[in-house]
């Protein structure tokens, strides 16, 4: 395989609270593949936390780091990659994701309803500047605003509202296996 063919096995997208990190870790274990979280790459590159990046340099700077990290992460071979909720929104990132899907990659939109999201997010929003304040209202607005972008990049959508992380990982593993076997034939 040349580096031009290198790509993650699967990319997870969806709003905050969709379970991208939990499902991503479970799926990576299931596939015996490495797990990467794009936000962790951004934090490592910036040397500061996400709230600090937003606070000191603003959201546009965060989005710039995110776009750069995405291009790199889409060439890493074989793993599971979870994206932050806003990553599929800028057009250039959607173009990078479309190109990844054309190379046979799988992009899963982890969808969920607002009640489940609020329950899952709980009070753990100190690391999520965009949900600060009224989590329910902020989540609803973000999810509505972004739905068409998530749908446009996804090769498959899973409603996670009534599924455990293990069940979701299992469904994705089956989908990936089918897609990988198609892309080899
Ligand atoms: C963001 C979601 C966060 C993180 C950043 C911005 C967003 O990731 O990338 O706070 O724009 O929705 P999670 O989706 O993992 O919370």
Give your account of this protein's structure.
By secondary structure, the chain is of the alpha/beta class. The protein has one domain (about 10-185): Rossmann fold (3-Layer(aba) Sandwich). It is about 55% helix and about 10% strand. The chain contains eight helices and five strands, in the order E-H-E-H-H-H-E-H-E-H-H-E-H. It has helices spanning about 20-30, 40-45, 50-55, 60-75, 90-100, 115-120, 135-155, 165-185; strands at about 10-15, 35, 80, 105-110, 155-160. Strands 2-3-1-4-5 form a five-stranded parallel sheet, sandwiched between helices. Helix 2 crosses helix 4 (about 60-75) and helix 3 packs across helix 4 (about 60-75). The longest helix has 20 residues, at about 165-185. The protein is globular. The model has no long low-confidence stretch (mean pLDDT about 95).
Structural descriptors:
about 180 residues, alpha/beta, Rossmann fold, binds shikimate-3-phosphate, 8 helices, five-stranded parallel beta sheet
Give a short summary of the structure.
With 185 residues, the chain is an alpha/beta fold. The protein has helices at residues 20-31, 38-46, 50-57, 59-73, 91-102, 114-121, 135-153, 165-184; strands spanning 10-13, 35-37, 80-82, 106-111, 156-159.
